[in-house]
Amino acid sequence: MMERSTSNMTYQAWRHESEIDPPGLLLQSRTVFEDATPELVRDFFWDDEFRPKWDPMLAYFKILHECPENGFMIVHWIKKFPFFCSDREYIIGKRIWESGRAYYCVTKSVPYPDVPKRDKPRRVEVYFSSWVIRPVESQKGDGQLSACEVTLTHYEDMGIPKDVARLGVRHGMWGTVKKLHAGFRAYQNMRKSEVPISRCAMLAQISTKMSSEEYSQREHQVASSREEQRRGGEVSFAGERRNGGSVDWKWVVIGGTVALVSLHMGLFGKAVLLGVGQRVGRQRR
């Protein structure tokens, strides 16, 4: 779909036509930032207080709930869109898992009765966006892990025709990526100063750690689940609608990994985050 680069950033993107209910566009991308640490990139993507400085679409945000023990939070967003789409409202749960210096950042629409739906702005009830953030070798060829790779998977049902969404993505993607990159470099400079970090960034640093043994055990679980999927199972992004919002275990793709996410009373309970990107990799080749 797209492959662009600058002197210190590389970006690749793929689009998949989703056949799930409701149908929509599943976007995947890989970004490599030179001279960047995974920890700073993690904080940047999580920092909704800083986000309006590079993302003009975020008109409003508020932290509705936070858990200081595991960093989980629920946020309220209102985003402004171009002329073809009215404003949209989001209630999003966010949590991070960590294995070594790799971070698995999950954001997903969640129920929150204290903020009832309104006619306007329209609420996006099917939303999933996540990042796998890890150190990689620099393109400088010095063998140092001084670059950071971000693998994104994004899906949402905005309630607009697929052709309109496809057109908007194609024409606006590179401009958005350039704003994101400029925003990250500004964030990088800001963090070098003595400015206190935001509450969002503080919560990003409270991730749930997974041991290498636990990671290996869950790899075995995923291998079994992949075999089950080949026998007829399917990956679901929108299970809540079919199950009336009840507690439900479901598979969700996270940019070359798979997570088994439990939603219970609006909070993420557990997640299995594992490296099973071979299938996605084969599709890209």
From TrEMBL:
Residues 211-239 are annotated as: Disordered. Keywords: Membrane, Transmembrane, Transmembrane helix. It holds the Pfam family START. The keyword Lipid biosynthesis does not apply. One of its GO terms (cellular component) is cytoplasm. This is START domain-containing protein. It comes from the Eukaryota. PANTHER family: OS07G0185200 PROTEIN (PTHR19308:SF9), PHOSPHATIDYLCHOLINE TRANSFER PROTEIN (PTHR19308). GO terms for molecular function: lipid binding. The chain crosses the membrane at residues 251-276. SUPFAM superfamilies: Bet v1-like. InterPro entries: START-like_dom_sf, START_lipid-bd_dom, START_lipid_transfer. The keyword Transmembrane helix applies. Residues 1-189 form the START domain.
